[in-house]
Amino acid sequence: MSRERLSVVVTRRLPEAVETRLSELFDVRLRDDDTPMTRSELVEAVQDVDVLVPTVTDQIDAGLIGQAGERLRLIANYGAGVDHIDVATARSRGVLVSNTPGVLTDDTADMTMGLILSVTRRLPEGMAIMQKGDWDGWAPTAFLGGRLGGRRLGILGMGRIGQAVARRAAAFGMQVHYHNRRRLRAETERELEATYWESLDQMVARMDILSVHCPSTPSTFHLMNARRLKLMKPTGVIVNTSRGEVIDENALTRMIRNGEIAGAGLDVYEHGTDVNPRLRELPNVVLLPHMGSATVEGRIEMGEKVIINIKTFEDGHRPPDQVVPAML
Ligand SMILES: NC(=O)C1=CN([C@@H]2O[C@H](COP(=O)(O)OP(=O)(O)OC[C@H]3O[C@@H](n4cnc5c(N)ncnc54)[C@H](O)[C@@H]3O)[C@@H](O)[C@H]2O)C=CC1
Ligand SMILES: O=C(O)C(=O)CO
């Protein structure tokens, strides 16, 4: 006798191959248009469903989880970061949470290197001149940037993406330093040729480039606050492909305007799409629309992870990528 299929609701359009596979395996409700669900649509969505598949643009907070129907048992996030989900409340209600780590590590690390190069070698300025048709030929002193080789890169949050950035940076001849909640094993540290700093303040003060890779949690909120940003060298550059909330965006904007920090490369913002307009005016700041994991391959593999998490749960086991409050 065939068992009843799990009912699954997906909040955003996903790659076609992922939607097709989800439809084959589950009783799935897909989204018609590619806008985030409104709050009332989200509340409606969690009423009579076993599994919710949200993503970073949805607020799955205590209020929403509290309004969910009894049937909801799994929140299978499409994405690695889970700062938009109240994991503790979900757990207290017996709702499991899973995410999709690992498959977007290399893509996000590649984009981090792209941002580092864009800021230090002034790629957007060069592109703008070419687009305007204003280029009047090579000049010995035009568009000079800084060489990456030999520079000190400080990685804040040496997890999957931080370590992938460390490997790339080493290939560019950079000296890798890091601060992490926990020190890496000696073997991994040796393999990465990375120097550990117990004191974030001390590391920040000595780096040429600081790259942020810790998740957004209560303990990382404004970890790079005005006081710490002030510790950076005036020639220092900060890059963030993690979450905007880790940096005080207003303080960063002010300090770049004042010449206290040399530049920034940002993929994520403290207030989502509401980017500080002053940040947009700065020539030494490169801004991307949260596209760190945006490869065709990565987005399909994220979907495959979601499916494996749901399927494993359906088979009576814990999802392989289960997130519990103690991990955050
Ligand atoms: N821009 C984009 O498109 C993407 C952004 N992300 C973001 O990147 C974050 C990191 O992803 P992964 O490397 O896969 O996560 P991970 O869990 O492997 O690594 C995070 C690291 O940060 C460290 N950490 C946590 N709190 C800390 C603190 N207070 N101080 C110092 N270190 C701390 C952890 O110990 C861990 O080593 C995600 O949480 C997500 O927010 C992830 C994928 C794509
Ligand atoms: O997975 C995440 O956390 C993202 O930010 C989008 O890929």
UniProtKB/TrEMBL annotation:
<dbReference type="InterPro" id="IPR050223">
    <property type="entry name" value="D-isomer_2-hydroxyacid_DH"/>
</dbReference>
<dbReference type="InterPro" id="IPR006139">
    <property type="entry name" value="D-isomer_2_OHA_DH_cat_dom"/>
</dbReference>
<keyword id="KW-0560">Oxidoreductase</keyword>
<protein>
    <submittedName>
        <fullName>Glycerate dehydrogenase</fullName>
        <ecNumber>1.1.1.29</ecNumber>
    </submittedName>
</protein>
<dbReference type="InterPro" id="IPR006140">
    <property type="entry name" value="D-isomer_DH_NAD-bd"/>
</dbReference>
<keyword id="KW-0520">NAD</keyword>
<dbReference type="GO" id="GO:0008465">
    <property type="term" value="F:hydroxypyruvate reductase (NADH) activity"/>
</dbReference>
<dbReference type="Pfam" id="PF02826">
    <property type="entry name" value="2-Hacid_dh_C"/>
</dbReference>
<feature type="domain" description="D-isomer specific 2-hydroxyacid dehydrogenase NAD-binding">
    <location>
        <begin position="113"/>
        <end position="292"/>
    </location>
</feature>
<comment type="similarity">
    <text>Belongs to the D-isomer specific 2-hydroxyacid dehydrogenase family.</text>
</comment>
<dbReference type="InterPro" id="IPR036291">
    <property type="entry name" value="NAD(P)-bd_dom_sf"/>
</dbReference>
<dbReference type="Pfam" id="PF00389">
    <property type="entry name" value="2-Hacid_dh"/>
</dbReference>
<dbReference type="GO" id="GO:0030267">
    <property type="term" value="F:glyoxylate reductase (NADPH) activity"/>
</dbReference>
<dbReference type="InterPro" id="IPR029752">
    <property type="entry name" value="D-isomer_DH_CS1"/>
</dbReference>
<dbReference type="InterPro" id="IPR029753">
    <property type="entry name" value="D-isomer_DH_CS"/>
</dbReference>
<dbReference type="GO" id="GO:0051287">
    <property type="term" value="F:NAD binding"/>
</dbReference>
<dbReference type="GO" id="GO:0005829">
    <property type="term" value="C:cytosol"/>
</dbReference>
<feature type="domain" description="D-isomer specific 2-hydroxyacid dehydrogenase catalytic">
    <location>
        <begin position="8"/>
        <end position="323"/>
    </location>
</feature>
